[in-house]
TrEMBL record:
The chain crosses the membrane at residues 33-53, 65-85, 115-137. Keywords: Membrane, Signal, Transmembrane, Transmembrane helix. This is TrgA family protein. Residues 1-23 form the signal peptide. The keyword Signal applies. The keyword Membrane applies. It comes from Pseudogemmobacter faecipullorum. InterPro entries: TrgA.
Amino acid sequence: MPTAAKLVASVWFALAGWLAANAHVPALGENAAVGLFRELTALIGFVCGWRVMGNGVDKSYADSVGTGLKTSIILAFLALLLFSGHQMVKEAFRMHFDGPMQAMLGWADLMMKNAVRMVSVGVIGVLIIAGLLGGPLTEWAWRRWR
């Protein structure tokens, strides 16, 4: 059911996803085609805010900080999963893998490599600050507009 808290959380974490993706773009390199990277990460943040943070209200403000950090972690994991999967499919069409099992292992390998590239002050900082502020903000919105 739509609530004000879910709306606030989804907009907040969509913004966090866009900012984190924007902070990650320099790590991709100069020749990397960014395309819809920022927008898709914002969409993932929107869904995570709605489903995870929006449903994690009706507790204390301290608990909402933990739920906000959990939402940021899920956002980062789902973005890694989606974009590494897309990268794996592109490599599979180039016949980089011998079979489907090697492609799945390649997906996990790409996730690890992309996670290492993602670890930067900008990306981690955005995700931590978004979680620390987004949780109490969503809890406040839930209490304000029940």
